[in-house]
């Protein structure tokens, strides 16, 4: 077996939980998030979203590095009379516009210390399921697409009673699908279990 295969197998064993566990600690996180639209997302729904949440799991592979999975939901909505250009024409008059984003990420996190109060940096990658909808009168235009996505993140863990607290900022950016690239910034605050 080549050296690279042995290294790959060792990494997979550690990530799967079958390897050395001297630093392993499972961490569950629940966050409420505000969403700030950017780029094409702002063009359709330009208002700040107060409807967001994120659920995450992390496992420490060493004292400073963790890997994890996260899933979330951010709902952007807006009532407007701005004209919307759509395929084959335009829509004007009172409209209700929605962008629903479901990000599904795998990430690697680097913790700057492991005391009860410490910052971290993360690189997340995965997919986003994006539904865009415009409702007007009795009509409705909607599209759903899946985008490849990247989301750099910076955050802070802090003590919060018997649990831990967390504050984070993520910049969500996707690949273009049908000429549309979803992007937004989320600011989250939440709780962490088994901190």
In the CATH scheme, what's the topology name?
Answer: Porin
Biggest sheet character: 8 strands, antiparallel, barrel
Our count of helices gives 2
Q: Could you give the order of the helices and strands? A: HEHEEEEEEEEE
Distance between the termini: 39 Å
What is the radius of gyration?
20 Å
CATH architecture: Beta Barrel
Helix content: 10-25%
The pLDDT mean sits at 85
The strand order across the widest sheet is 1-2-3-6-7-8-9-10
What is the count of structural domains? Answer: 1
Backbone structural class: mainly beta
Oligomerization category of the chains in this entry: single chain
CATH class: Mainly Beta
Please give the number of β-strands.
10
Strand content: over 45%
Shape: elongated
Spans where pLDDT lies below 50 across 5 or more residues: 10-24
Set out the fold topology.
Elements: H1 3-16, E1 26-38, H2 39-44, E2 51-60, E3 65-80, E4 84-86, E5 89-91, E6 95-111, E7 118-136, E8 139-160, E9 163-174, E10 182-193
Antiparallel strand pairs: 1-2, 1-10, 2-3, 3-6, 4-5, 6-7, 7-8, 8-9, 9-10
Keywords:
single chain, 195 residues, mainly beta, Porin, eight-stranded antiparallel β-barrel, two-stranded antiparallel sheet, 10% helix, 65% strand
Structure explained in plain terms:
- This protein is mainly β and 195 residues long.
- It has a single domain (21-193), classed as Porin, CATH 2.40.160.20.
- The protein is built from 2 helices and 10 strands; from the N terminus they run H-E-H-E-E-E-E-E-E-E-E-E.
- The chain has helices at residues 3-16, 39-44, and strands at 26-38, 51-60, 65-80, 84-86, 89-91, 95-111, 118-136, 139-160, 163-174, 182-193.
- It has an 8-stranded antiparallel beta barrel with strand order 1-2-3-6-7-8-9-10. Strands 4-5 form a two-stranded antiparallel sheet.
- The longest helix has 14 residues, at 3-16.
- The protein is elongated.
- The protein starts with a helix and ends with a strand.
- 28% of the residues are buried.
């Amino acid at each position: 077996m080549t050296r690279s295969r042995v290294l790959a197998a060792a990494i997979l064993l550690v990530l799967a939980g079958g390897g050395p566990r001297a630093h392993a600690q499972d961490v569950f996180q629940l966050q409420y998030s505000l969403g700030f639209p950017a780029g094409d997302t702002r063009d359709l729904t330009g208002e700040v979203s107060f409807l967001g949440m994120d659920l995450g799991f992390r496992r420490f592979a060493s004292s400073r590095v963790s890997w994890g999975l996260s899933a979330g939901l951010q709902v952007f909505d807006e009532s407007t009379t701005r004209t919307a250009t759509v395929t084959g024409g335009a829509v004007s008059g009172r409209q209700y516009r929605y962008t629903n984003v479901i990000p599904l990420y795998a990430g690697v996190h680097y913790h700057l210390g492991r005391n009860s109060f410490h910052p971290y940096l993360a690189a997340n990658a995965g997919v986003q399921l994006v539904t865009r909808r415009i409702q007007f009168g009795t009509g409705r235009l909607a599209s759903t697409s899946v985008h490849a996505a990247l989301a750099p993140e910076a955050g802070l863990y802090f003590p919060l009673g018997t649990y831990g607290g967390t504050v984070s900022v993520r910049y969500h950016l996707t690949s273009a699908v049908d000429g549309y690239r979803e992007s937004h910034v989320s600011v989250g605050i939440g709780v962490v279990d088994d901190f």
